[in-house]
């Protein structure tokens, strides 16, 4: 049986920190990332792609806000904005992956699935929203919007203003998971759980509804990988290897570590929250739920010997 891999695209695979986010910039980034996946495709892997959407969903929120201020158009909630970006980013990945495959004279269908991911409305994350989304506001603007909408705002630690914060609940169920696996094992390149998936919950029995939240895309991709029985899970980020003592004189790059070692490093605070810590936790979830190994690295390292940091079972 061919190997099945899930690859979670990090934000830099779509938009780099010093870029404005033009379509040309994003398409070039996606093309380069898809080109780096060729090593897996040439080895006849079946692949499923997840991706982030942080900058893009923030831009969509700004567009909705501008439409409301200028024309009175109703602004859409976050779950709707996640759906929008799943479609637009899926379009870019499909197109650029097709360009890569045609250049290499390879033939595979590429399919984007707009994916709803169920969360628990009683998840403790809803009592302590911490995930910043959307534009920056002055304190006066944030207070005004909070009063009008009931949204919560928090001050940016770098002093850039106040941003809306929303919950980041754990994903518990990925809809259409059987179809995702069937399409992937049939040789299609499947793009799914974009932005962590559209967050939904059962407002009552037999009735799904969107909820104001964002789901961590690495954790959603990890759940996906475990549920479809993936052999390997790749988390693409902006560093070639995970490090301990990062940016210190005794920094050490990690080549291959066990679950126990990863947990020890987490407990010792080597991995920053909002950066490497969620990626390591996603890797651990995959391995502890049936996965064989997870590789954390940059897309340019794919296919190279000893690429990235591999996390394996004890």
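-> sequence recovered:
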């Amino acid at each position: 049986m061919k190997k099945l891999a899930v690859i979670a695209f990090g934000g830099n695979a779509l938009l780099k920190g010093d870029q404005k986010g033009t379509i040309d910039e994003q398409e070039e980034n996606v093309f380069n990332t898809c080109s780096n996946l060729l090593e897996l495709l040439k080895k006849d892997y079946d692949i499923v792609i997840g991706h982030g959407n942080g900058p893009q969903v923030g831009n969509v929120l700004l567009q909705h806000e501008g439409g409301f201020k200028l024309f009175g158009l109703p602004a859409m909630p976050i779950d709707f904005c996640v759906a929008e970006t799943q479609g637009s980013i899926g379009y870019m990945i499909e197109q650029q992956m097709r360009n890569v495959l045609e250049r290499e004279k390879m033939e595979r269908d590429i399919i984007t699935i707009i994916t709803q991911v169920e969360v628990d409305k009683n998840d403790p994350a809803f009592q302590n929203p911490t995930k910043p989304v959307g534009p920056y506001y002055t304190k006066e603007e944030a207070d005004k919007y909070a009063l009008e909408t009931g949204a919560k705002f928090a001050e940016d630690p770098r002093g850039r203003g106040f941003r809306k914060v929303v919950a980041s609940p754990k994903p518990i169920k990925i809809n259409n998971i059987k179809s995702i696996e069937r399409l992937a094992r049939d040789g299609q390149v499947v793009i799914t759980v974009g932005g962590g998936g559209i967050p939904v919950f059962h407002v009552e029995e037999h009735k799904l509804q969107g909820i104001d939240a964002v789901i961590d895309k690495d954790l959603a991709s990890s759940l996906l990988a475990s549920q479809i029985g993936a052999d390997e899970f790749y988390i693409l980020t902006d560093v070639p290897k995970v490090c301990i003592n990062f940016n210190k004189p005794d920094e050490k790059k990690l080549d291959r570590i066990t679950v126990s070692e990863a947990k020890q490093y987490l407990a010792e605070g080597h991995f920053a929250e909002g950066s490497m810590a969620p990626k390591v936790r996603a890797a651990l979830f995959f391995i502890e739920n049936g996965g064989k190994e997870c590789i954390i690295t940059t897309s340019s390292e794919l296919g190279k010997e000893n690429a990235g940091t591999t996390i394996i079972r004890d």
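The radius of gyration is 19 Å.
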